[in-house]
Amino acid sequence: MLRLIAQRLQSWLNLPGETGAVLPALAVMLGAALLAFVFIAFFAGPVTWWERRVAGRVMSRIGPNRVGPQGVLQWLADGLKSFLKEDIVPAAADRPLFLFAPYLFFGGYMATFVVLPFGAHLVATDLSVGLLYLIAISGLVVVGILMAGWGSNNKWALFGGIRSAAQLVSYEIPSAFSLLAVVLATGTLSMQGIVRAQGGWPWEWLLFRNPLLFGMFFVSFAASLAENNRTPFDLPEGESELVAGYHVEYSGMRFLWFMFAEWGNLWVIASLATVGFLGGWQIPGVRPEVIDQSTGWAFAGWQALSFLVFAGKASMLVLFAIQIRWTLPRLRVDQMMIVCWKYLVPLALLGSAGVLVLVALVPEGSPVDWFLRAVSLGLGLWLIIAYVRKARAAYLADREPYRRLEGKDPWYPPYRLP
Amino acid sequence: MTGADLAARITAAIPDAVVAVEESPTDPVVQVRPEVLHAVAAFARQDLGMETLRLITAIDRPPETIDVVWHCLSMPQHRTLTLKTRLPRENPVVATVSDLWDAANWFEREQFDLVGVHFVGHPNLKRLLMPEDWVGHPLRKDYQRPEEYHGIPTARDRVVPVREVAPPMHGPKAAEQDGWMLLNMGPHHPATHGVLNFLLQTDGEIVRKATPDVGYLHRGIEKIAEMNTYAGTMPYTDRVDYLGGMATNQAWAMACERLLGVEVPRRGEFLRVIAVELNRIASHLIGTGSLAMDLGAFTPFVHWLREREYINDLMERICGARLTYTYMRIGGVARDIDRETLDRTLQWLDHFEPMLGEFDRLIGSNEIFVNRLANIAVMPAEAAMSFSLVGPNLRGSGVRWDLRRDEPYSVYPELEFDVPVGRGFRGTVGDAYDRFMVRMLEMQESARILRQAIARIPDGEFRAKVPRVLKPPAREAYGRVEAPRGEAGFYVVSNGTERPERVRIRTGCFTAMPAIESLSPGLMVADIIALIGSLDVIAPEVDR
Question: What whole-number distance in Å separates Cα of residue B400 and Cα of residue B418?
Answer without folding.
Answer: 10
